[in-house]
Predict the 3D structure of the following.
Amino acid sequence: MDTLQQLLESGARPILAELDPPRDTVPEAFFDAARALHGAGADVITVADCPIGRASADACMVSARLRREYGILPLPHMACRDRNLNAMRAQLLGLDMEGIGQALLVTGDPVAQEDRGQVRGVFHYTAATLARALTDLTAQGRLPAFFLCGALNVNAANFDAELRRARQKEENGIRAFLTQPVLSARAVDHLRRAREALHGFLLGGLYPIVSHKNALFLSREVNGMAVDDAVIAAYEGLDREEGEALGQRMCLDFAGRMAEAVDGYYIMTPFRRVELAGRVIGALRGENGHVSRG
C-alpha cells in the first residue's frame, strides 16, 4: 500500500475524502461510507478529530481499523485542543505500530459551548509549534519520522498572514497542506499565490454544496469558509436532486480552475452524502477528469 507521501512524490495526484468519525457505539455506517468512498476512487480517507469540539470515536483508533481491517489508507487528524505533547507522542507511536506514517496536525476547534463546564481545552501548542516538537523528537530518535500535513485557509481575509503561518509550518516540518474548500474566485487566486510561495504539496479543498440554505450557512456561519455570491444565487429554487447535480458541477469547475496549482484534491462529504461525494470522485477519475489514479 502506497503512503500519502509516495503518492504525492510520484505525481499521482491523489484524492482524499474526509469523514467525521462516529459519535456513538454503532460504527458500521462510518466504515461502510469509507469503503464506498474508497471504492469510488478515493486514495485516502481522512478522519476528523472530534470535529467542532464534540467527542467522537478517536481518530487514530478509527484510522488503525481502516488500515488493518479494510486495507484503506487513512490520514488521522490530530488536534492540539485535547492533548499535551506526551499524549501526542503516545498516539503517534501507536500509529507507527499500525503502519500509519502520516497525520494532519490542526490547532482544533474550541470545546463546544455546552461542554465547557466539564471539559477544558489543552491548546499547549499550535499546529506549527507541535510540528516543530514532533520533528525534534524524531531527530532525537524518540519518534519515528512521520509525513506531517497541515491546514491552509485559502479563504482567509488576511491571506498574507495566512501565508506567513504556512511558511512557519513548513519550517517546522509540515510537508503538505490541505486547504479549506475553494468556492470563490478569491480562493482560487489565493491558492495560486500559495503555489508560488510554498514548497510543500497542496491538496485543494472541494465541497459539494447541496442547497441554497447550505450555501448561505457556509458563507455566513462557518469560520474559514467563503462562497461567491454567484454560487449562492445559483442554488435558489433547486430541489434536492438539482442541488446535488449543481454541487457536483461546481466541484468539477473549481477543480479545473485550480488544477495547475495543486498536487491533488481533498473532498469533504456534506451531511454524510456519500453517494454524492463518490460521484464527484468518479467524475474526477473519469476520462474527462483532472486526475489519474495513483
User: Anything to note?
Assistant: The chain is about 45% helix and 15% strand. The longest helix spans residues 240-258. The chain has one domain: 14-208+243-285. The two ends are 11 Å apart (CA to CA).
